[in-house]
Design brief:
alpha/beta; 7 helices; 5 strands; 199 residues; globular; 3-stranded parallel sheet; two-stranded antiparallel ribbon
Amino acid sequence: MALWDLANSDVIVVMGSNMAENHPIGFRFVMQAKARGATLIHIDPRFTRTSAMADIHAPVRSGSDIAFLGGLIHYVLEHDLWFRDYALAYTNIAKIITDEYVDAEDGDGLFSGFDPANGSYKTDSWQYKDHIAASPGEEHKPNTEADPADGLAAMRDSPPPSDLTLADPNCVYQIMRRHYARYTPDMVESVTAVRARLS
């Protein structure tokens, strides 16, 4: 999205930035959106000029950003507020992951594939069902020299299995729902110090 597209937004979230002071040129597009009726939400421990312009200031406790974002994801998924048509067509939300995948909730705080000997993950169990990773057993680490097409080798013959009803317990949507279920409003409030319900 181009910066000037902000002017056409309905809701704008600024997180961890004092955009009004540090990026005043870009912030004018935020103010144009506000003039059109957009809601501006500022998530930052500090109260700054951006907070003063915001409709909602969420003063999160420093270091609790992930819990706050987890709460937003939980709310969107549980209240069915996501853009279904877009997600089904352009993301992997309906794809089915292998039965070997284990979420951190069920894996003593670690996702499946963790190798304690070297402190990294092997991603074999994170693959799509019935599709073998291009390099099975290889540790997960960035590789800027590899050809990106190599990672798609297993999908060249056929696409990964999907469940467009999103009912399969191993589809990405259901895995996300289980993972973010812990981020309830009360849990997020206790971690971030931001009230769960605005009055």
